[in-house]
Amino acid sequence: MKVIIKELEQSADRIPEHQITDLIRKIKAHKRIFVYGTGRSGLMLKALAMRLMQIGLDAYVVGETTTPSVEKGDLLIVASASGETGSVCMTAESAKKQGVDLIVISSLPESTLGKIQEADLIIESATKFETSEISVQPLGSLFEQMLLLVFDTVILEMSREDTGSNEDMAKRHASLE
């Protein structure tokens, strides 16, 4: 476990503070936020959508049966460590053609996803296609762990702006459990 924690600390040190601030600014500038990713990255994005909803924003997961169609001016957040996940690239491309703003998160800025739009956040890590000297963990584990930490940091900062936010979030928490 200490190896993973050390990797997380090193990775966190590589992310400039202004990139977190920029993510928050972009999220706050949109009425509706959509997220999309596959596999474990997709799970981290679903966790973000849940917290965005709990802080009072309209957040949706692309592909769910109750997700509405996007409109010009909405925001789509996508993440792919490799930047080569076909459905993520196709979704980002489609959103862009429809006038949807993008936040792109990847570990490889020169990837297909990075060519659709320059990455807003680069998390250095291994991918399903490449190993990395940065991490001994398999596949994109470090990337996915960092997604959760980055997203929780974004939510923490956004929730600090509203007094009583934790109580409001608890009211929006799932009650049919």
Describe it for me?
The protein has 177 residues and is α/β, with parallel strands linked by helices. The protein is built from seven helices and five strands, in the order H-H-E-H-E-E-H-E-H-E-H-H. Helix content is 48%, strand content 13%. The chain has a five-stranded parallel β-sheet, sandwiched between helices. The longest helix has 20 residues. It is globular, with a radius of gyration of 16 Å.
Task: Chart the SSEs and their pairings.
Blueprint: H1 2-13, H2 17-28, E1 32-36, H3 39-54, E2 58-61, E3 75-80, H4 86-97, E4 101-106, H5 112-116, E5 121-122, H6 141-160, H7 165-172
Parallel strand pairs: 1-2, 1-3, 3-4, 4-5
Strand order of the largest sheet: 2-1-3-4-5
Secondary structure tally: strands:
5
Low-confidence stretches: none
- Structural class, judged by helices and strands? alpha/beta
Q: Mind summarizing the main beta sheet?
A: 5 strands, parallel
Rg, please? 16 Å
Helix content: 40-55%
Please state the overall shape, judged from the principal axes of the Cα atoms: globular
Termini distance?
Answer: 31 Å
What characteristics describe this protein?
177 residues, alpha/beta, five-stranded parallel β-sheet, 7 helices, 48% helix
